[in-house]
Amino acid sequence: MSEDTIFSKIVRGEAPADIVYRDDRVTAFRDIQPQAPTHILIIPNKAIPTVNDVTTDDEAMLGHLFVVAAKLAQEEGIAEDGYRLIVNCNHDGGQVVFHLHMHLLGGRPIGRMVQRV
Ligand code: 5GP
Questions:
Q1: Ligand 1: which of 22, 52, 97 to mutate, most ligand atoms within 8 Å of CB?
Q2: What is the pTM of this model?
Q3: Is 101 in the active site?
Q4: CATH number for the domain whose boundaries are 6-106
């Protein structure tokens, strides 16, 4: 069984968040430490820890994450200039919250795709 995370609590309304969209499959809310003028997290309501845990049953929901991302980018006024969608997986991917999520970042040039560290 997957561990309960802060994101599951946000989905259940047990933790506060600036929610910008929700439906029966996904919830989107502003990142608490925004890295760009628009920084929204779009997450499945179902707690899937990482991309490694997705199954074919999740395909429609995963596609829906992109549909919601595109809709929110329009609403934020960043669609035309552009934005970046990021999904981190596990330690080397930089994942810190183990409830699968898509970052929507925009409102400024986001820079190189991968930073050398
Ligand atoms: P990751 O590195 O796992 O892909 O990104 C996790 C993101 O979740 C980070 O950008 C972090 O700022 C954000 N985050 C962590 N805890 C909270 C929280 O309690 N509320 C919100 N809104 N964002 C959070």
A1: 97
A2: 0.96
A3: yes
A4: 3.30.428.10
